[in-house]
Sequence to fold (226 residues):
Amino acid sequence: MSDSDNDYPGGLMGQLKEAFVGRKMARAERGHLLTGQADEAHKKRLPPGQRLVENWPVLDLGIQPSVTAEQWALDINGHVANPVIWDYQTLQAQPKHEQVCDIHCVTAWSRYDNHFEGVSTTHILDLVKPTPSVTHVIFHAYDGYTTNVTLDAFAAPDAMIAHSWNNAPLTREHGGPVRMVLPQWYFWKSAKWVKRIEFVDADQPGFWEERGYHNEGDPWLEQRYS
Ligand SMILES: Nc1nc2c(c(=O)[nH]1)N[C@H]1C(S)=C(S)[C@@H](COP(=O)(O)O)O[C@H]1N2
Ligand SMILES: [Mo]
Fold:
């Protein structure tokens, strides 16, 4: 199990220093001055207890399944009127959703301005039509990982399945070919290598939720551990 602050001994502080210097240099280049107001805005963008990084750390259970785009398939099923199975081509044929969002990991790093492309969860809901009894959605991944969210969290306008990050196919280490992205929650809710989206009528805590993580995980409320 690798998800702890100890994953980046020493290195994190070095990265942070670089990140802060880099941000200040970028502002200087754009002719911006750091004012009290800018600092306030910055504070509000960064949830409590988080530190900004400019790299993208990798966190998982230590197994990064090798699933090619050709092999990848996604079952979307459970309590739905219209279950579907998508291969990579079918995913690509759906209406495209793209967004830029910040991501926040419970191990205290945040990364700003991630450009993701894929398909919105609202499109999935329109397509599969969950029955009225559905309360939660469970993500199952190719490495055996699971995580749970409420139907409302799933239905957020910025929740999506992503196949690309910053204009390139999502790499294997970050969950490629396809992962979930739910930016309003700590990143453990964003299952990498997603294999099945299951609509259920009772909550089912996932891998980390069963091991002491908070059931919801709102970074603004610091819902880190239960
Ligand atoms: N399939 C799978 N998805 C996963 C995990 C995992 O172990 N397996 N780890 C979660 C955790 S704890 C975090 S913080 C993020 C990390 O995503 P990243 O490696 O792209 O930064 O993935 C989440 N999704
Ligand atoms: Mo995490």
In short: The helical segments are 11-30, 36-45, 88-92, 121-128, 151-154. The two ends are 18 Å apart (CA to CA). Residues 11-30 form the longest helix (20 residues).
